[in-house]
Specification:
11 helices; single chain; alpha/beta; D-Maltodextrin-Binding Protein, domain 2; Arc Repressor Mutant, subunit A; eight-stranded mixed beta sheet
């Protein structure tokens, strides 16, 4: 009876993913965040890969990790391979569920800017299903299962990116508060509302205004822009608002601009689409209703 020799086993795919992410990002912790695992799991995957390869891939030191020459040489090939795998998975998802769209957006955009546009899309094309995930940082559209992202950014536009709106800021408040604001100095008598994610908004806007010296910046701080906005809407104080997020409330009069001065920031609201979704038959419909009237 013939015996088939045991086939040699290659490294585990998760170990290869951990190596590529840690090498590309230069950090086991950053790789763990991207892969949604613990840093300890990344460390174990790297150790198993080094044991299989019988060669070190990282040099550990007090400041973190450094790639060995072997790892530096191999990284581009692994990154290209995982990018290709990611795009193949994206294409599979787009072909298998062509009427399902997954959007990643900054929490404030997901809560304030998207809902009315999703309603318009739903009425015009009820066969299209859109899921929204709120997150603080943009996902990697080559690797992660999203079709469209909406985030503020100041970088030059790249492939499959379009500017949706400029980022313009100015104070807003309820009408009853605006009635007692005759000049910037009156802000010292009101509560200044701060959003933790855009903590420098008041400083930037006041620095751009004449005669703003002596205006106290202190006030209440809220972890979400939407929470600070609700405070402003209910008369809780004055908030520096981002135009694209508050325009409907200005249009219906729930909020007003007590001062005419505004400040255009370098950032803009940017939409980025996955290549597979950009080729989808429903892309133009989604683009028209979610992005067409935004600028």
């Amino acid at each position: 009876m013939s015996l088939a020799p045991a086939r040699p086993k290659g490294p585990h795919l998760n170990a290869l993913r951990a190596f590529e992410a840690a090498a590309r990002l230069g950090s086991f912790t950053a790789a763990a965040d991207e892969l949604a695992v613990t840093p300890g799991a990344v460390t174990q995957h790297i150790k198993s890969l080094e044991a299989w390869a019988e060669a070190p891939l990282f040099v550990r030191n007090a400041r973190g990790v450094v790639l060995t020459p072997l790892a530096e040489e191999l990284l581009p090939g692994f990154t290209s391979a995982f990018d290709q795998l990611g795009m193949a998975v994206q294409a599979l998802r787009a072909k298998a569920a062509p009427r399902k769209v997954k959007v990643a957006a900054l929490p404030s955009i997901a809560q304030l800017w998207l809902p009315p546009r999703l309603g318009q899309l739903r009425r015009a094309a009820p066969e299209i299903s859109v899921s929204v995930v709120a997150m603080e940082t943009p996902p990697n559209l080559t690797r992660e299962p999203f079709d469209l992202t909406l985030f503020y950014g100041a970088d030059q536009l790249g492939a499959n990116e379009m500017e949706v709106a400029r980022d313009r800021i100015f104070p807003v408040c309820a009408p009853e508060i605006a009635a007692r604001l005759t000049g910037l100095a009156d802000l010292n008598k009101e509560t200044l509302l701060h959003d933790g994610a855009w903590a420098k908004d008041w400083d930037m806007w006041l620095s751009a205004q004449p005669d703003a010296d002596g205006i106290a910046r202190a006030g209440t701080v809220h972890s979400l822009f939407s929470v600070a906005l609700e405070e402003a809407r209910h008369g809780g104080g004055v908030l520096i608002a981002h135009e694209a997020l508050v325009q409907p409330l200005l249009d219906n009069g729930e909020l007003v601009r007590p001062f005419s001065g505004s400040l255009d920031l370098p950032a803009r609201l940017v939409a980025k689409t996955a290549p597979a979704f950009a080729r989808s038959p429903i892309f133009s419909v989604v683009q028209d209703f979610l992005l067409g009237g935004a600028a």
